[in-house]
Amino acid sequence: MFTTCDGESHLLPRNSRTPYASNTFPVENYPWYCSDSGVFHQGAPLNPAGNASAHTYWSVYTDPSNPFSHTGFNGNCQFPQITRGGLYDSWQHGRDLWDVYHYLLSFLPSIDPLSVMEFRVTNNVITSHVASMLIAGMFSSENPPQTLPKGPLPIKVQPPSIDSLEPRYPCPASAALLSLYGPGSNASSWLAHLAASRPLFAALDSISGVPSDDAASNTDDEWHRSWDHYFDNLSARLCDAKRLPCDKKGKCVTDSQAAAVFRLGQHEYSRLWRAAPESLPAAAAGYGVWVAELAAPIRDIVAATAAAANRRGGEVKPRVRYRHNVAHDGSVARLLALLQVDVMVWPGMGAEVVFEVYTNRRKEVSGAAAAAVYVRVLWGGRVLRSSHPDLGALDMLDARVLLAYLDGLVGRGASKVPGMCGLQ
Which residues pair with 72 in a beta bridge? Predict the structure, then answer.
């Protein structure tokens, strides 16, 4: 019987948002307004506090005296920006997490829960927007007895040049592996995939105004080296309940064309992060530092539980019991590749991987059973299934098995990663 979790780590991509500016069409046929949400930017004295700071947000506008026009959508959004719907989804997700880990599992305490919780983001500001709403949802007035603390809350972020969560640390070997078989490569299988989908590219180019890719082997054209740009553009619209785009003559992208783009995107992610033989070493090198950071607190719980069992008493209570990381689809894809997930998909907005660590707290249990630590990994709300025989269904898996697997790939403290990245 496992009465509660002893550790919790979440990896969550950002929620519904506007597309990246690089993924917008040269001329969009309707505007996109974000007057119902704000991108807040402010600084304030801290430790010790000083003069109060104004609560300011960016108000996007174009001055009539500015002779230059911008590409993409007219309106007042940042690209990217979490939409109002995405902000609400983040808040609701936080509320749901509190319902599960406080009320259902009695894992997060009623008194000062933030003292045992950590939140982390990447250097992309949209992850901070998601985190701020998620935290507010967890500590909303609708979740008594907790309400959001009045003071500022720290959110962890690593320096941009070595951030392991996004990831952005230098790893030329991982990038080199991806260049052998993925976007921009001359791999025959990738070029054949692009050639087979060329009619759809041509149909969408005629509507979007994106310059057509006339050369079948043109690997420098960002819009036609993969389906990433069209996928991001169309999915962002549909996630925000916007209509599919049309050209000036009224010819529009059809539902079936959009569905084909999404299928092709799923195919590409499956190939990039699971099907290709190079995908595992590319992910292990490119995301191994974050995986080592994930393994460290699990290892600490294993050691502390064994020590408590030898003392025949004492409850293991790690200082930080809940860790929440807000990252990106590429972050989640690399983690799924590292775990050799059975079925790879393009991680959607709001998709989540959860690591739960369990110990046996029944007083009558002693010896090896008392020292046992187990891990459950959830992907999309269900137990993650790995194709690796040592992992299988990650449902109450012996934590030592998972640690041995991760250590074998990246080393304790990511000791193997610099060499895998070609930096040693």
Answer: 27
Token match 């640690």: residue?
403
Q: Where are the alpha helices (DSSP H) in 182-321?
A: 188-196, 198-208, 228-239, 255-270, 279-310
Phi, psi of 173 (to 5 degrees): -65, -40
pLDDT in tens, 293-318: 999 999 999 998 888 777 765 566 67
Closest CA to 17 of 114, 86, 63, 111: 86
- Structure tokens of 104? 């259902």
Q: What angle do CA 86, 90, 93 make, to 5 degrees?
A: 135
Report whether the peptide linkage leading into residue 318 is cis, meaning its omega lies within 30 degrees of zero. no
H helices present in 83-185, as ranges = 84-98, 125-138, 172-181
Q: What is the pTM of this model?
A: 0.92
Q: In this structure, how many other beta carbons lie within 10 angstroms of the beta carbon of residue 293?
A: 18
Query: Helix axis angle, 255-270 relative to 198-208, nearest 10°?
Result: 130
334 DSSP β-pair partners: none
CA 175 – CA 163 distance, rounded (Å): 16
Scan for tokens 């041509």, then name that residue.
Answer: 202
Of residues 129, 150, 103, the one with CA closest to residue 37: 129
Task: Give the residue-averaged pLDDT of 349-374.
Answer: 77
Residue 388 makes CB contacts below 8 A (sequence gap 6+) with 339, 340, 405
Are the C-beta atoms of residues 285 and 423 closer than 8 Å to each other? Answer: no
The domain ranges of the chain are 1-18+82-170+276-424, 183-265
Three-state SS at 367: coil
CATH fold of 1-18+82-170+276-424 reads Rossmann fold (3.40.50)
Handedness of CA 122, 123, 128, 130 (dihedral sign): negative
